[in-house]
Design goal:
The protein has 11 helices and 10 strands. The protein is an alpha/beta fold and about 325 residues long. Helix 5 links the parallel strand 6 and strand 7. It is globular and about 55 Å long.
Length: about 325
């Protein structure tokens, strides 16, 4: 089924779509939003292309899809609110940008909770118990159903001033950080001056010197071309970015059971495929950064980890309690 790229302005005045208002060749229509540019080397667009193909197959063509890439629906937080209200039906976004609607998604924002993109993240993201617990509460509190989780690579620190070798090197640096309390507090504890800036505004803020550097996942930094306006890349690996594939729960519940099952199956399979792709693509992205003149360094992560773990206790209740944090740690023990 051919994907249609539509601009956010088309949504104005259109209202929300009920499941019966699909395209002529399908029974239902899903508007799918994300912040990546429509390129196959950008993780969310790649996810959408894979998901659309699988969902079309598993639902026997009963779904028509409309993609809204490159933050056409606004910032991730604004787009998530539109999904909650039913103005769009699906999204892919980092869980830290979804926590405004249900704080349990911030579990994956805790620094150094997930330690690697291999065995560790595989066990966490594919644990059906964890996914079900988070989704069940999100459905009740925010009208959001979690269909799948995917891994999008490590968060590292990038800036235009100097390498970050120890936490002291962040003193006085103006760092762009997503508008998330855990991320903001982590950087404040490290000594940075933090500025909350939306994804789409980050390139301009770095280019004009409003901020000196940024926190971001490797795939997002590459997709947004932030390597064009920075000089130093410090491999702190302080978070493994987890993205959520979500759907408006009221919309989902109005679908026939076979269509629900097809969407769920496609979402999980596409997430697993995208995680594996990103795992293999990270080195390619790093090579592109180096070709652009970015200078890499690998700091001792222990001092950063010690600061990060202090954040866990402060936000334990926000993310579902220490039991849930310990559960995620236990899921990774077999990998050590």
């Amino acid at each position: 089924m051919k994907t249609r790229f539509l601009f956010a302005s088309l949504l104005i005045g259109a209202g929300s779509l009920s499941p019966t208002q699909g395209a002529s060749a399908a029974d239902f229509t899903i508007k799918f939003a994300h912040n990546s540019p429509p390129r196959m080397d950008a993780q969310y667009h790649r996810y959408f292309v894979t998901f659309e193909k699988l969902a079309t197959k598993y639902t026997n063509g009963k779904i028509a899809f409309q993609e809204f890439p490159a933050s056409q629906m606004g910032s991730d937080q604004r787009a998530a609110k539109k999904l909650q209200l039913g103005l769009i039906q699906m999204m892919a976004l980092a869980t830290n940008n979804l926590a405004q609607l249900y704080s349990g998604f911030d579990l994956f924002t805790l620094p150094y909770l997930i330690t690697d993109m291999g065995c560790g993240i595989h066990h966490v993201l594919n644990d059906s118990k964890l996914l079900h617990e988070i989704s069940e509460i999100a459905q009740k509190k925010a009208n959001i159903r979690l269909l799948a989780l995917e891994g999008d690579g490590p968060r590292n620190m990038m800036n235009s001033k100097h390498p970050i070798v120890t936490p002291a090197d962040l003193d006085g640096l103006r760092m762009r950080v997503a508008k998330n309390p855990i991320q903001l507090d982590f950087y404040k504890a490290l000594g940075a001056d933090v500025v909350g800036i939306a994804s789409a505004e980050t390139y301009g803020a770095l280019q004009t010197g409003i901020v000196d550097g940024n926190d971001g996942g490797v795939g997002w930094i590459y997709a947004q071309k932030l390597y064009e306006v920075q000089k130093y890349y410090s491999l702190t690996r302080h978070q493994m970015v987890v993205s959520a594939i979500i759907i408006n729960d009221s919309f989902f519940n109005a679908l026939p059971k076979d269509v629900q099952a097809g969407l769920q199956k496609a979402a999980l399979q596409a997430a697993q495929d995208n995680t594996q792709w990103m795992k293999g693509y990270i080195d390619n992205i790093y090579a592109k950064f180096k070709k652009a003149g970015i200078k890499f360094n690998s700091p001792d992560r222990m001092p950063f980890r010690e600061v990060g773990k202090k954040i866990w206790k402060k936000y334990a209740q926000r993310v579902g309690g220490m039991d849930r944090i310990e559960y995620v740690q236990d899921l990774q023990k077999s990998c050590k």
